[in-house]
Amino acid sequence: MSNMLQLTRAELRSLLYRWEAGELNGDEVQREAELRVEQLRPLPELDENNPDSIPLDVLNILESLYNELIIAADIPAILRFLETLPGYEVDGWTQWRSYWHSIDFDSRLKLLVESPDSIDTKL
After folding, report:
1. Domain that includes residue 47, residue range
2. How far apart are CA 57 and CA 62, in angstroms?
3. Tens digits of per-residue pLDDT, 41-89?
4. Looking at the 3D structure of the chain, how many domains does it have?
5. Which long-range contacts (CB under 8 A, 24 or more apart) does 13-22 make?
6. Is the pTM of this model over 0.85?
7. Which residues, including other chains, have CB under 8 Å from residue 31's CB and lie 6 or more apart?
8. Distance CA 90, CA 96 (A)
9. Is 70 left (phi over 0), alpha (psi -120 to 50) or beta?
10. End-to-end Cα spacing for the chain
């Protein structure tokens, strides 16, 4: 694993824990992710069997928090994905996609439109 993305994995966990604890809000999480993406540019394209593909994907979704309709209730799933053990990346990706396919994004979008602060709600 590259040192840069290894560091990013630890930073992402810290960022997510701080959001979960209410120390940061969604806007701050997105800004932090944007700053980190700028430091890593150009972003590599990685196969799902590459351990670095996981923190890179998490970084990308946090950078696009509002476009991806990510809310604080997603933090446990994001952390589980980040904790995927080396050699189990494909399984991690399968579980990750399964989680996102289980979300009712129409309802989530409606909730966020009606109450933008719900991005920080753990539901």
Report:
1. 3-120
2. 9
3. 888 889 999 999 999 999 999 999 988 999 999 999 999 999 999 999 9
4. 1
5. 13/79, 13/82, 15/62, 16/75, 16/78, 16/79, 16/82, 19/72, 19/75, 19/120, 20/72, 20/75, 20/122, 22/120
6. yes
7. none
8. 10
9. beta
10. 34
